[in-house]
Amino acid sequence: MNTPSQAPLGFLLHDAARLLRKRFEQQARHLGLTRSQWQVLAYLSSNEGIHQGGLAELLDIEPITLVRLLDKLEAIGLIERRPHPTDRRVRLLHLTDKARPLLGSARKLGDATRAEALQGVSAADRETLVRVLGLIKCNLVEACERPAAFHDSQRDSAENG
After folding, report:
1. Distance between CA 90 and CA 75 in Å, rounded?
2. Given phi > 0 = left and psi -120 to 50 = alpha, else beta, which region is 77?
3. Boundaries of each HTH marR-type domain copy (predicted)?
4. What does the DSSP 8-state code read for residue 51?
5. pLDDT of 48-63, one tens digit each?
6. Which residues have C-beta within 8 Å of that of residue 12, sequence separation ≥ 6?
7. Considering Cα of 17, then 19, then 20, then 22, what sign does the dihedral take?
8. d(CA 93, CA 90)
9. What share of the chain is helix, strand, coil (3-state, %, to 5)?
10. End-to-end alpha-carbon separation of the chain, Å?
11. pTM
12. Cα 80 to Cα 78: distance, rounded to the nearest angstrom
């Protein structure tokens, strides 16, 4: 089995993210929401008044997936869909007063989960980690905006060369 330093970067990042989500879900289960619902609330808290399409784009999920999450959050009284002042086809999303204390609890659980994950990591290494991951994200966002540079014909010649 590979040690963490030998694991491919993509696998290591995926595993770390998956375990962070799993631990958060363990900690937050008693609050009665899924991680996806928490994520919607967290993004909405920073982007109140956004329309559904904009929030789906921020979350990088399909609009129909977001609609299902919003329907559930609205049914339990955590979000409101309000009419747009000039476009009656658009609904703007807002948190309710009931959601705000829950978000506070989720943030505390998130802080505790991150503290567990970063146990034994120095402050300097934490800063480096965040800086490097931010750079990796920026690089990949830019790369995803360009056409793929590695096509099947190039792969075939690389394999045969």
Report:
1. 19
2. left
3. 6-138
4. B
5. 999 999 999 999 999 9
6. 4
7. positive
8. 10
9. 65, 5, 25
10. 30
11. 0.74
12. 7
